[in-house]
Design goal:
The chain is of the alpha/beta class and about 210 residues long. It contains 5 helices and 9 strands. A hairpin with a 4-residue loop joins β7 and β8. It is globular and about 55 Å long. The mean pLDDT is about 95.
Length: about 210
């Protein structure tokens, strides 16, 4: 199996036709071997257009959805990002290649250990990984320019806005029912915030119910 070729085909057939054209985002995908982040029995589908289950009700959304998250996040190379729910670190590594500093949290110690290992394997030196509950964010390192929560959740904690700079963003996915979720982008203002719908997500994954 030529995984590098499969990665190229994924970019050309899944990402570019859906308006993912930012060169930095595409290069992040091209230079990151997704097969390092998943179990051996799922390597054959890692660049296909489908979700990949990792543990229990959690996993990686389709490659296009991960790319859409990065596209709408519009990450700048001087920004500080919090990624909540890092799993084994695939999306975290992609984010790390686009930002100045990334903090990653997960409530599962095995995932925390995997992210640390995969950061090392991918020469990510601008990241820090901690075990935290999803709803808590990471107050010790606030404020952030951007918070990303890529796994759908039923109950989004609005208090996370307090951990974002004025003008900062939160990308998150709201669970509507068992199979449908909706991705949103929030922008924080001095005394208010805005919320924009981004795209639909058809997935059974969720963080908390």
């Amino acid at each position: 199996m030529n995984l590098e070729k499969n990665r190229e085909v994924m970019i050309e057939n899944q990402l570019r036709p859906n308006k993912i054209t930012n060169g930095d985002v595409l290069q992040a995908f091209m230079s990151t071997s997704k097969e390092q982040f998943i179990s051996e029995d799922k390597i054959n589908i890692c660049y296909s257009d489908q979700d990949i289950s990792i543990k229990d009700q959690r996993g990686y959304l389709k490659n296009l959805h991960l790319a859409q998250i990065l596209h709408f996040a519009d990450i700048k190379n001087n920004e500080k990002v919090l990624h909540i729910g890092g799993l084994t670190g695939y999306l975290s590594v992609l984010i790390a290649k686009l930002c100045n500093k990334i903090y990653v949290t997960d409530n599962d110690q095995s995932f925390v250990d995997s992210i640390i290992k995969n950061f090392s394997n991918n020469k990510v030196y601008n990241g820090k990984v901690l075990k935290e509950e999803f709803s808590e964010g990471l107050k010790s390192e606030e404020p952030y320019d951007l918070i990303i929560i890529d796994c759908p959740q039923y109950n989004f904690n609005l208090d996370l806005l307090s951990q974002v700079n004025v003008g900062g963003r939160i990308i998150y996915i709201e669970k509507i029912n068992a199979g449908l979720s909706k991705a949103y982008k929030m922008i924080k203002y001095k005394d208010n915030y805005s919320k924009f719908f981004l795209f639909d997500v058809f997935s059974n994954f969720y963080l908390t119910k």
